């Protein structure tokens, strides 16, 4: 089972979803801006990504540039910030089993899904 945490307004997120669909892969789509993640769900995603919260912050967002750039936060503080402002979360995030990737690179997606057709 493949799950994609998706923002349909994001070009890279749409491209990641289209890539999976073009490969014939069925996936569950979670529009995380409409259906926000719980703290536990987000921590589970971070574990599957094997990344810290700061590693998946969208630093190009105006909100980041205006309010967060140059500041230091703990992991728990980043989690709170990102859950309160989910547009700051990199996208798409693609999950298969116990692993996940930020799906902006098709090679990363391929490594995750392993050629499943």
Task: Provide an overview of this structure.
This protein is 40% helix and 15% strand. It has 117 residues and is an alpha+beta fold. The chain has a single domain (2-113), classed as Glutaredoxin, CATH 3.40.30. The chain has a 4-stranded mixed sheet, sandwiched between helices. The longest helix has 12 residues, at 11-22. The radius of gyration is 14 Å and the shape is globular.
Give the key terms.
single chain; Glutaredoxin; four-stranded mixed sheet; 4 strands; globular
Structure summarized in a few sentences:
This protein is α+β, with helices and mostly antiparallel strands and 117 residues long.
SSE order and pairing:
Layout (H helix, E strand, L loop, with lengths): L1 E5 L4 H12 L4 E5 L7 H11 L12 H6 L7 H10 L8 E4 L2 E4 L3 H8 L4
Parallel strand pairs: 1-2
Antiparallel strand pairs: 1-3, 3-4
| Structural class by sheet pairing and helices | alpha+beta
Radius of gyration: 14 Å
Helix content: 40-55%
Inertia-based shape: globular
Query: How many beta strands in the DSSP annotation?
Result: 4
Note the gap between the termini. Answer: 12 Å
The CATH topology turns out to be Glutaredoxin
Task: Just give the CATH class.
Answer: Alpha Beta
Low-confidence parts lasting 5 or more residues at pLDDT below 50? Answer: none
| Succession of helices and strands | EHEHHHEEH
Q: What is the assigned CATH homologous superfamily? A: Glutaredoxin
């Amino acid at each position: 089972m493949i799950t994609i945490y998706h923002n349909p307004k994001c070009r890279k997120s749409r491209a990641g979803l289209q890539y999976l669909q073009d490969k014939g892969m069925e996936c569950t789509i979670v529009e995380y801006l409409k259906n926000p993640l719980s703290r536990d769900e987000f921590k589970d995603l971070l574990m599957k990504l094997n990344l810290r919260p700061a590693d998946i912050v969208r630093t190009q967002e105006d909100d980041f540039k205006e309010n967060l750039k140059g500041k230091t936060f703990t992991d728990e503080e980043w989690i709170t910030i990102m859950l309160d402002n989910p547009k700051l979360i990199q996208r798409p995030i693609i999950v298969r089993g116990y692993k996940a990737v930020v799906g902006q690179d098709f090679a990363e997606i391929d490594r995750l899904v392993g050629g499943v057709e």
